[in-house]
Automatic annotation (TrEMBL):
GO terms for biological process: fructose 6-phosphate metabolic process; protein N-linked glycosylation; UDP-N-acetylglucosamine metabolic process. This is glutamine--fructose-6-phosphate transaminase (isomerizing). Pathway: Nucleotide-sugar biosynthesis; UDP-N-acetyl-alpha-D-glucosamine biosynthesis; alpha-D-glucosamine 6-phosphate from D-fructose 6-phosphate: step 1/1. The keyword Cell inner membrane does not apply. One of its GO terms (molecular function) is carbohydrate derivative binding. Residues 47-186, 218-362 form the SIS domain.
Length: 372
């Protein structure tokens, strides 16, 4: 049931304040003066000790689910102190990459049925690793076969392009990071501010959704373009990849997510006065580096669309001329990807409608890919 919406993708983008609320429901311990602010993940509490003892954590997924793990990696590394590596499921299988008994391997999947992810799970089980599921579908193959896990509880997702599952996956993995790190005193203040950030997150998502009309206007400007580059780094490298994936899969426009730190190693050659470039430059520890990227793109006359924190918008205008400046609410750095993807989801949605393509069932794609 699409309710007041025309498409499932539109409905699912707009219901993110609610889906994020259900992802966190009953899992945040917050308030009550004597109690520390922390998380409780029922499915993991008996396994946290084993996870903390693991030599490495490996996160495996495909498509958007891989991007969600990429978005959560910095906070997983920071709070666990354990090396975190990422694997696209098919690539791990192609290489038969090493997985050890001492590894914790997490399988990220909305459907819980993706063939490559499921095959990678079987492979990790054979190799004796502790297998953890991050899934949206209760009773799915991945939820059943993993040793333990977290249901993201985003509600069923119908649009082939994943939107609300992505933000709920990031939040679930951030809660996983908080749970793993919960025995460390030195990171307590950091963890508490993340819990506060999680509590506020649905209202901040509601705020960023007000950019809907602005993103529709931007889509009108970009309607006839051949290509869109999306630059991000740090916490928002994943936002660049996921934003570009949305544009590519539904609007059927070539789009590429680029790690800004790699700009000089190739992508800079593409920059001219015609190609639109979306730069994510919200306020975090990478901000000054991202400002210098913007200056260098300006120097090459790039057509820039810049996403920045509301507080930085005025200073941003001093740096140069832009096609658009998209102002988003500022949240805790590790939660910023949840905010920043929303305008890009809206842009992809409007571009698709304006270009006359099928939003909910893009050409050649399936919601759940159950063959290799
Ligand atoms: C569980 C109940 C929830 C109830 C809550 C009350 C289910 C599905 N969830 O939620 O309805 O409100 O207790 O305390 O009945 N698991 C995997 N792999 C996965 C995902 C989950 O093995 O990919 C396992 C977990 O380890 C756990 C079980 O499935 O044993 C349920 O997981 P989850 O729903 O995340 O647990 P709770 O949040 O505790
Ligand atoms: C398909 C979907 O390609 O599978 C994507 O169209 C999704 O939206 C990908 O990200 C992985 O699916 P899942 O269910 O394993 O998260």
């Amino acid at each position: 049931n699409k309710g007041k919406y025309e498409h499932y993708m539109q409905k699912e983008i707009h219901e993110q304040p609610e889906s994020l609320t259900t992802t966190m429901r009953g899992r945040l311990i917050h308030g009550g003066s004597s109690k520390a602010k922390t998380v409780l993940l029922g499915g993991l509490k008996d396994h946290l000790k084993t996870i903390r003892r693991s030599r490495r954590m490996v996160f495996i997924g495909c498509g958007t689910s891989y991007n969600a793990a990429l978005a959560a990696r910095p906070i997983l590394e920071e709070l666990s102190g354990i090396p975190v590596t990422l694997e696209i499921a098919s690539d791990l299988l192609d290489r038969q990459g090493p997985i050890y008994r001492e590894d914790t391997v997490a399988f990220v999947s909305q459907s819980g049925e993706t063939a490559d992810t499921l095959n990678a799970l079987n492979y990790a089980l054979e190799n004796g690793a502790l297998c953890v599921g991050i899934t949206n579908t209760v009773g799915s193959a991945i939820a059943r076969k993993t040793h333990c896990g977290v249901h993201i509880n985003a509600g069923s997702e119908i649009g082939v392009a994943s939107t609300k599952a992505y933000t709920s996956q990031i939040v679930a993995m951030t809660m996983l990071a908080l749970a793993i790190g919960s025995d460390s005193i030195s990171s307590e203040a950091r963890r508490e501010s993340i819990v506060d950030g999680l509590v506020d997150l649905p209202s901040k998502v509601r705020e960023v959704l007000k950019l809907d009309n602005e993103m529709k206007d931007l889509a009108k400007l970009l309607i006839a373009e051949q290509s869109l580059l999306v630059f991000g780094r740090g916490y928002n490298y994943a936002t660049a990849l996921e934003g570009a994936l949305k544009v590519k899969e539904v609007a059927l426009m070539h789009s590429e997510g680029i790690l800004a730190g790699e700009m000089k190693h190739g992508p800079l050659a593409l920059v001219d006065e015609n190609l639109p470039i979306f730069v994510i430059a919200t306020h975090d520890s990478c901000f000054s580096k991202q400002q210098s990227v913007i200056q260098q793109l300006h120097a090459r006359k790039g057509r820039l669309i810049v996403m920045c924190s509301k507080e930085d918008a005025a200073s941003m205008m001093n740096v140069g001329k832009y096609v658009r400046v998209i102002k988003v609410p500022h949240v805790e750095d590790c939660l910023q990807p949840v905010i920043n993807i929303v305008p890009l989801q809206l842009l992809a949605y409007h571009l698709t409608v304006l270009r006359g393509h099928n939003v909910d069932q893009p050409r050649n794609l399936a919601k759940s890919v159950t063959t290799e």
